[in-house]
Amino acid sequence: MHRLLLAVALVLVTACGPDLSSPSKPTEDTAPAATIPSPTRAPRVLAETVDAVTPSLKATIATGIHPDLPKYIRTLPGVAAAARVLLSNMTITANGASGEVTVAGVDPDQFRPLAPEATAQARFVWSALSRSEIFLAHEDYRRLGADPGTNVRAEGPGSRTLLRVGGVAANGIPNLAGAMISIAKARQLGLGEPTLLLIGLAPGAKHADVQAELANLLVGVQFQRIGPPTGRAYLTGTLAANAIGSFLFTPNPDGTITQNAEWVSKNIVSARVPIFTGSMKCHRVMFPQLRGALTELQDAGLANLIDPKQFGGCYVPRFIGRDQNRPISMHAWGLAIDFNTIDNPQGATPKMDLRVVDIFERWGFRWGGRWSVPDGHHFEIAALLKR
Questions:
Q1: What is the largest CA-CA distance in the chain?
Q2: What is the pLDDT of residue 232?
């Protein structure tokens, strides 16, 4: 049986959602919204608007981040906003089908000013997150077919529960994850604790000054700057989806898939890139960013941080883990690359040098080493760069 897989729309910079004033009718494969316990605390009073600021610095603290730390950091000179973020993976079941989704657990009040402008100003998003609803990034909304107002079953290492889909909203540019929930709900699902701190700088503030202040304050912190390479901008929404395309596929017993030949011949190409020997096969739209990241590493004298002998592949048409009950891998799109695989096995504490991660993330990649079950050798396209 053939299945149609829709194109991945990599970044959504607008937020949308249903009328939350009345409960929606349950779909065939979901329980009614009333089965989700209502919060007992007093209703939250949210500001109509906020002063949104683009995150420009990441601080990773592997031992975890105290809930009050962002509040203190916001008092430091040059800091406009700060929020802790929990990044993990969980399984979502919608319309009878299950898929694995990367998830960002956030504190709604902390994170709101650091969200993309349209999401930050969408008051219903933050009210719904506080009610333990889930918001999907555009690519995962299309992949799962989980319509706003319906319920999905979320399963983490600790438990499973029903979550109401509050709507579709970007959580970053590029998106930090495929879904956004509250930290409290992420904890209930056993997804771990926040280890990432996002920081937005005040106008005129210098990265170096803020970073030096934080380095004196925090023990074991690792910093990375955020944003595309100088003079570049990310491609958003349907423009990115159209560049990637969509394909029909047939699942195979061994967990691989057979895609329609027309999509493969149009989009999957072989080419050479810096640092690696020989040629590799990837989606054509990925090569400019891959070459950009690798060239920057090479020019910075950091090529030795990548071992070409530990290359794990780019285009591999398969399900995640070759399991038909899991989603299509980003490798099936040719939009992911694995390297330094022996040094960074899945599930182990990543040993990838953060200077490599920093450069790849600025070139529009998402690093699997930030997930609660780390995949430290894995980088996948999270946003396309305009050419």
A1: 62
A2: 54
